[in-house]
Amino acid sequence: MQKNFFCLILFLLFSKNSAQTKAFVIHTVAFYNFENCYDTINDPIINDEDWTPAGTQHWDTKKYRQKLENLARVLSEIGTSENPNSPTFIGGAEIENQTVLEDLIKQPKLIDKDYGIIHFDSPDKRGIDVALLYQKKQFQPTSYVNIPLYMYKNEQPHKEAQKEETPEDFETEDVIQVSAKNHRIYTRDQLLVTGFLNGEEIHIIVNHWPSRSGGEKKSSPYREMAGALNRKIIDSLQQINPDAKVITMGDLNDSPFNNSVKKGLGAKGKIREVQPFDIYNPFEEMANKGLGTIAFRDAWDIFDQVMVSQSLLQKDYKTFQYWKAGIYNKPFLIQKNGKYKGYPLRHSLTEIGFSDHFPVYIYLIREKK
Questions:
Q1: Measured in Å, how far apart are the chain's first and last C-alpha atoms?
Q2: In this predicted structure, what is the pLDDT of residue 369?
Q3: Cα→Cα distances 33→80, 128, 304, Å
Q4: In 164-254, at which residue ranges do the beta strands (DSSP E only) sit?
Q5: SS3 call for 62
Q6: Distance CA 54, CA 67 (A)
Q7: Average pLDDT taken over every residue of the chain
Q8: β-pairing, 294-296 with 279-280?
Q9: d(C-alpha 38, C-alpha 52), whole Å
Q10: What is the pTM of this model?
Q11: Please, what's the largest Cα pairwise distance for the chain?
């Protein structure tokens, strides 16, 4: 199998009477929370002071370069158990700006992939954004837009959310911040990208939903709003084209079972339950098996998910269809000792790790023409 990205794989499809060998094109679609992917320069518009040489993280050029090298290693290897080439699409979160992405795709492990960048600065007060990297030879974007999520402190949709709650969920630096001027809660935009994958139209949404800062229940309404906005975007695409192929992915700060995913977005966890215009979430089954992408107090959860529209679940592989999904949790990404043994190997003052999340991915396949 040659290591060019437009790769062909052979596997057996069994019918009732005989087995046939068919050739398929395969593409990997990945998502990774880069965790505090900051440059070393203080930006007066955002709260990035900790990630400067004078900040609490003592962030300097050497550490920054090591962080990029680490990320590049991960990104170059996601999904290579079935596809020997790096992902065609990489959705990312916790990215400070366009510059860090430009530095990232120039890393030795990625530069030959010729990734393009789609990124917008979001209103998040920490200055962390979402972005999409794509291999230019495989995908040609035709449009892209950042869609803001407007939330206000006085718009809590559930009474239970008004109650004080002792934070008991995942520790986070991603604090929900409220504007003193207009009470708006600033968070990441949702990035919608449309284009042609080997001549076939695909829509991709990259997300990083509001955090659990303050506790899961108290903050849940914000993520439910994010899920509802995601559903609205998908509905608009399906109104234009009922057969629109949509992939939505990101760090949702919720599990596949939470209201934001099950009700706000309306995702289904079993393919047999998926109806036309529905969304299928393959990571629900993984969560049922106890797998995870993030850990806290020895409990695992799947916050990072990639979901597909029903139009990507057809049995006719003459067009691109969903094949299968996975969590990329290789041993080198795991903490080997200490208090957080077994957790994702994240950055600390003494070690430049990778991220506090594991990456996730899906495969798209199409029969060779």
A1: 18
A2: 80
A3: 19, 11, 8
A4: 177-178, 185-186, 190-197, 200-208, 246-251
A5: helix
A6: 18
A7: 90
A8: unpaired
A9: 9
A10: 0.90
A11: 70
